[in-house]
Write the structure tokens for this entry.
Amino acid sequence: MEWEKKGLIFTVDKNSDWMYSHAAVPFAEHLRDDIFRIYFTTRDIRNRSHGAFIDIDLKNPKEILHVSQRPVLKPGLLGSFDDSGAMLSCIVNHQNRKYLIYQGWMVGVTVPFYVNIGMAICTDPRNGFTKIGPYPLFDRNQSDPYFTGTGYVLIERNNWRMWYLSGVMWERINGIPKHYYCIKYAESNDGITWDRKGITSIPFKSSEEYAISRPCVIRTSNSYQMYYSYRSGNTTYRIGYAESDDGLTWTRIDDRIGIDVSPQGWDSGMIEYPFVFCHKGTTYMLYNGNEYGKSGFGYAILNEE
């Protein structure tokens, strides 16, 4: 693959108390014609995650048509799994409903944080999204004993398929807790009750690797493609790529991704959280750069010649 970077689309610079910094984990929803809604996660003045969006015209993505004036999702009730923040992951349109998969945050004591996957549902656009409750969709269990996050869902023949981040351990190094997480797989008949069998889709490729996150899965005519973020050793995030015949067994071919950090600028330190989609024969990638989205998000176009 060869991606042509097109530059920064949007950044947050103290826009408001709730949209104070960061525009992380972007993903797109087609509204009409060439108009797309780009959801992302911002942080408030207290560093808590909130859901937000902008509307753009793909003919000129850098010209922002609209910025959300209130959060799509807010942090949850005191003591709930998302009382420290709600990070949007993906949206699924199914049977006249919109299902929003998100990642709830809680501040930890012995470890810095706890995260788990949540869900919110929209039946009427005028009313926005409503969380299914103060509890996670995925809580910790035998398959995922530490935490879960950044789920990505495809629905195939009424079978809900999710690829998601799963924490596999914490390790204390020089007195500082270090997390380890990879990509696992789950299925559901209704999107609410999930069968998690501990299937690992993208395992660590070396003893130095410790973080694989934010999968984005594309179904082609005869295979599956996955884009994700990974890091190892002392390196920052990079974008990875894998392929599969069935969505269960994957082959990592990170060296084919064809996009990396820039020599300078907003994505020179790291590149992560890809979301890939097609429109009118063109393949687009939304992604974050430096400091986990603090520098905003931009886009690239796949050269398919």
